[in-house]
Structures are given as structure tokens and as C-alpha cells.
Amino acid sequence: MRPVDMQVIIPKTLEVAKEHQNLQESGKVVQTMLGVQFQKQQEIEKRKVNSPTKSEKIEVTSEKERRKDEKNKKREKPFKKSSNHIDVKI
């Protein structure tokens, strides 16, 4: 390299080094901000009451209670006569 080229390159090197350092620091700042934001979100999630899922709402009932409920449901249904069925007595 020629001495004239070195006179131009050295100041440019300092500028590039400063820019590179700024980029690295901004990345660290963004990463830190995201970490803090994530921690705040985790705290909010810890304090929030979640509604139970469908599987958590299932109640365990005894066999007798289930049969009783089925009988009650059958009684509530109105009886409909079928037009496709003929009842014959001899």
C-alpha cells in the first residue's frame, strides 16, 4: 500500500470501529429490553387466574347417579308416534 492510501484508511478505520461498537451495544440493549419485557409478562401470567379447560371441568359421578340422570333425561323426552310403524294385535 502507498502512504497516501494509509492516510485515508486509518481515519476510516476509526469510523468503522465506532459504528461496529454502536451496533454491538444496540444489540445488547435490545436483548436486555426483551429480557425485562419477558420477565414482566411472566409475572403477569403468574398472577392471572386461568379458566379451567374442558377436561378439568369433568365431574366424577357414581354409577347410580349416572343411571338416575339418564332415566330423568329419557322421561323428559316427549313420546312421538311413528307413522312408519303399524301395531297389530290378534
Description:
- There is one protein chain.
- This protein has 90 residues and is mainly α.
- The chain has a domain at 20-50.
- It is 70% helix and 0% strand.
- It contains three helices and no strands.
- It is rod-shaped, with a radius of gyration of 39 Å.
- The model has no long low-confidence stretch (mean pLDDT 80).
- Residues 42-90 are annotated as: Disordered.
- Residues 74-83 have a biased composition (Basic residues).
- Residues 42-73 have a biased composition (Basic and acidic residues).
Q: What is this structure, in a nutshell?
A:
This protein has a domain at 20-50.
Spatial shape: rod-shaped
Number of helices: 3
What is the beta-strand fraction? under 5%
The radius of gyration over CA amounts to 39 Å
Question: Layout of helices and strands, plus pairs?
Answer:
Elements (H helix, E strand, L loop, with lengths): L2 H45 L6 H4 L5 H14 L14
Task: Give descriptors for this structure.
3 helices; single chain; 0% strand; mainly alpha; 90 residues
